[in-house]
Write a structure and sequence with these properties.
mainly beta, seven-stranded antiparallel beta sheet, 13 strands, globular, Cupin
């Protein structure tokens, strides 16, 4: 069993977001990765196709998630599930920052429309 303190979190910045990684193999997890992502106001990440299922829980603010062709605006306390293989876009269309908690399996690969692939360090 591992207990992860906030001081052990590792921060990564990508596509305008701030990813604060807590649960990952480096902190004792074998199968799961979990992080808090902070998304500034008026920011949209690129559409990407995910190799693993991801779950999302909005901690604060409002976010628009698009999973394949379906979009929804989510507020504090709302959650979503994106199946493996789905195209995903996360945007904050508001004038205030937002935060959400994300969980997936380790080894997640995100494929961008140009064919490039990202293996996020917070998910390995």
């Amino acid at each position: 069993m591992s207990f992860i303190r906030s001081a052990e979190a590792v921060v990564h910045e990508l596509h305008g977001g701030r990813f604060v990684s807590y649960v990952r193999p480096g902190t004792g997890s074998r199968d799961l990765a979990a992080w808090r992502v902070e998304i500034p106001a008026a920011t949209a990440g690129p559409t990407h196709t995910i190799s693993e299922e991801e779950t999302f829980y909005v901690l604060s603010g409002r976010l628009r998630l698009t999973i394949d062709e379906e979009s929804a605006e989510l507020g504090t306390g709302d959650a979503a599930v994106a199946p493996a293989g789905s195209a995903l876009t996360v945007a904050n269309p508001t004038d205030r920052p937002a935060q959400m908690w994300v969980t997936t399996r380790t080894g997640l690969i995100a494929r961008l429309p140009d064919g490039s692939a990202i293996t996020p360090p917070w998910a390995r």
